[in-house]
Amino acid sequence: MSQNTQTLSPHLQSMKFEMELRGYSPQTQRHYLCHLRLLESYSKKSASQITTDELKQFLHFRIKSGISYSNINISCNAFKLFFNKVLNYNWSDDVIVRPKRPKSLPHVLSKVEILSIMDQVVNLKHKVILLTTYSSGLRISETLNLRISDIDSKNMLLRVNQGKGNKDRLSVLSHENLKLLRLYWNHYRPTDLLFPGLVEGKPLAARNIQLAFQVAKEKVGISKPATVHTLRHYVESYVMGSVTQNCYF
Known about the structure:
Structural class: mainly alpha
Number of helices: 10
Number of strands: 3
Distance between the termini: 42 Å
Order of helices and strands: HHHHHHHEEEHHH
């Protein structure tokens, strides 16, 4: 669904303006507007006309429907911004009720399992992306948006630009990961974006990496519901053999 302001109602245009003013990412803007539209669809009225009871009924309906905590949490964030900052209703947490975060153990992969998955990834670019995500503890979007200039081999650091919360930060760059990145550069010779996609100036699509990870996981018979995001919790080196010298970085 297009989020072009020409197709938005006046109150949703005000919401979009407020989000742009605060520097929210395009993805966050789309999510927040989507949740407001879900509220309107459920209540069959404009979000600006929703009462406190109707909002609580909607949140209750979502919880009873088995919607995940993270999804409902996004709804609450969107509603707080819309009702309290756009409409200035100043509704309290007793109205915009955020459910308690469920306690659950994360799905953990052992180092052996992670490396066995990596061994099944044949495509060099996919392998380097996954191992950089793993070794430096990055989100997949952060890895895919790396540029050659973000690699600081002198100080053994990776610069992450506009990560979560639109914040820049530095992450560790292991010697083994640097060797692998040099091997990758010698093969693909990227000039700006480290992992460019088919569209000029755009990085490789994350879905390609997610699919490569899932296929490799299935090949080694690992049934745990782990995803690429699981890798960022393991900041360890992947030991590689000898690599080509005369590298760029």
